[in-house]
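Batch job 17 of 40 flagged for manual review because the log was empty.
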Amino acid sequence: MERRTIGAAALAVGAVGLGCMPMSWAYSSSRQRGEESVRAVHRALDLGSTLLDTADMYGPFTNELLVGRVLKERRQDAFVSTKVGLLVGEQHIVANGRPGYVKRACDASLRRLQTDVIDLYQLHRADPEVPVEETWGAMAELVQAGKVRALGFCAVGARGGRRSGTRLYDATIRQLHRVQQVFPVSAVQAELSVWSPDALEALLPWCEARGVGFLAAMPLGNGFLTGTLTPGQGFEPDDVRARHPRFTAEMMAANQPIVAGLRRIAARHGTETTPAQIALAWVLSQGRHVIALPGTKQERWITENATAASLRLTTEDLAEVAELPGALGSWD
């Protein structure tokens, strides 16, 4: 697989990585099977999808334990990324950016992941009660201690509370400027897909201008862009899509033209090419510093996603994607 680099340290990873969250958290718990997921992670590494993205809150904790089972056998084959800064309660999630907590959380993640070092340690959310520089400073000390190789920042788009005239990631960019003064940002993770292109406006250019890697989360639109979901099919209560404004039956039907457009482009690349591969190839075409992180727990989808790294979209393809209608949600 094509290799791309993250940050000034030039950490090399496969262009398509693996989002491990669905194996343990947020998607259809009845379909989460540990052994199947372990085989899927092994398959990703076999195909060159070396960046394994997890977090301590996924599960919580169980996703890191699962990834750790693979790392125990294949640490040299993997680039492991995990996150800190969010705590999961009974019915809520809260941020914790206190320096002491960050250091304890890192040690706990290292134990669960069965490794001596985390390749990329990401701040999942900034704690509004703690200056972000203090949290980032504690993370930088972990680099100096040899427990972490590089630091990343997860971007939050305040879609619902955005003021008129502001861009989606303005608040995140202000925070990035602040932490960059403390210790270099190697990567920024944010949603980027054909139906959620907001990061292209300012966040992606910010990363490109500074040599910062961009980790494209949800590049397949929570599965919608694969074309395998049916409007009105319903989701399990614990599935995030059961509450997502773009996954009501009405909105899924209204957004079908986006999938239809991806199918048309896929047909020009051969009968074996899928809408999902076109969607991933579009994400990868946004810059050499972009790494796609599709999440899945099945080997067949991992194989399909990895193949997208070798797919090259034409000028005609890119123009057709640009003409696709914007995604609708219940807020529209």
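Reviewer: the log was empty due to a logging misconfiguration, but the result itself is present. The chain has eleven helices and twelve strands. Unflagging and moving on to job 18.
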